[in-house]
Amino acid sequence: MSPLLFSRLALMVFLHYFVWGAWYVTMGTYLNEKLHFPGEQIGLAYGTTAIGALVSPFLAGISADRFFATQRLLAALHLVGAGLLLLVSTLTTFSLFYPALIAYTISYMAGHGLTNSLTLHHSKNPGREFPLVMMMGSVGWICSGLVVSWLQFEKTEGMFQLASTAALIMGLYSLTLPHTPPKGAGESVSLRTVLGLDALTLMKDRSFAVFIICSFLVCIPLSFYFAWMNAFMNELSIPNAAAKMTIGQVSDVIFLMLLPLLLPKIGVKGILVVGMIAWAVRFGLFSAFDAQRDAAWMLFLGIAVHGMCYDFIFVMGRMYVDSRASAQIRGAAQGLHAFVTLGAGMFIGSWLSGVVGQHYTQQAGSQTVHNWQAIWLIPAVLSGALAVLFALLFRDRVVASQD
Predict the structure, then answer these.
(1) Is the entire prediction scored with pTM above 0.90?
(2) Most buried among 37, 127, 145, 391, using CB within 10 Å?
């Protein structure tokens, strides 16, 4: 991959994830403290990205595989998303806010598979180049967190307005990306293809089936972090929580650079198991954290392992899917992965996190207080049990470099 092409793809990933990071991290605090939504509604709001991932990736992946150039489809989705985000910023009742956010996340979540497949299409060596390009997604999250804190948008609708502006820029920029035509253009299209069922043939491989099932399950506990972490830090009165949470994205950058080096040494299975263990460690640290003691290191260490938690599960997962799928179904296969992880897994996890959060919530006068030790202990136990299950059932097949 030439330096110019790398830069173009890296900017694409930067902008795509800047949009998400501008509102997703701090939305829980905004809904809790300004709109006063209860825990169940906050969980449902975070579940909208899962609904988007359930609905959109198959259709977007199939459209990119069969009908439309990937970069044009990506542009259209972000331009529509910019308008929807602006609408969301004006809504203050759950009955209006929730469906509008669902409509937006359907447009946004389709972009994950498209940015992945576009990058992989233009990579000569995906095992080495893909993690480096995806590293710019972490940089996008870092920058969005810093900007949100700098503009003091953590508790205001300004986070959605910032995301809307970034989405508009991303939509226009996408039109300049390398042309990526549909590989299956002109081929007959069956109902099976439209529904994305071609990708399900991969489930005949036992290792792939175990990978997909465990990828679904691990997304249930990890949803707790995205739904509650910023609210957790704000309840502890930690200033500029969004900016401090970007420590996790710095970790992303580090571990994305390490991923190509670690993959040949410990394999797909080793990477994924370490990622699951990292989630258990992170939640365990949060559960054991006591604000009355001098234990801030536990809080920030839990944030700092984010690179292992996210990259070793999601980035490695996308690379594994790409290595198993043929060119004709690659978009649909990435859609399948997004469906079970960002879709089904995150939806159930977001719902569960909201139920658990509300269950361990009490009113202390005019203040809402959470039993954070109990809230974090549940995903810690789930993550640890899943790591053991995956280690026992998955059979490693190393992702080969493609020169």
Answers:
(1) no
(2) 145
Map tokens 């937006």 to a residue.
104
CATH number for the domain harbouring residue 174: 1.20.1250.20
Q: Is 267 left (phi over 0), alpha (psi -120 to 50) or beta?
A: left
Rounded alpha-carbon distances, angstroms, from residue 103 to 169, 195, 202: 20, 20, 30
Q: Concatenated DSSP letters for 292-359? A: TSS-HHHHHHHHHTHHHHHIIIIIHHHHHHHHHS-GGGHHHHHHHHHIIIIIIIHHHHHHHHHHHHHH
Q: What is the structure's pLDDT at 193?
A: 58
Inside any domain, residue 186: no
- CB neighbours (10 Å) of residue 93? 9
What confidence tens digit (pLDDT) does each residue in 177-186 have? 988 776 655 5
Residue 401 covered by a domain:
no
403 assigned to some structural domain: no
* Number of domains within the chain: 1
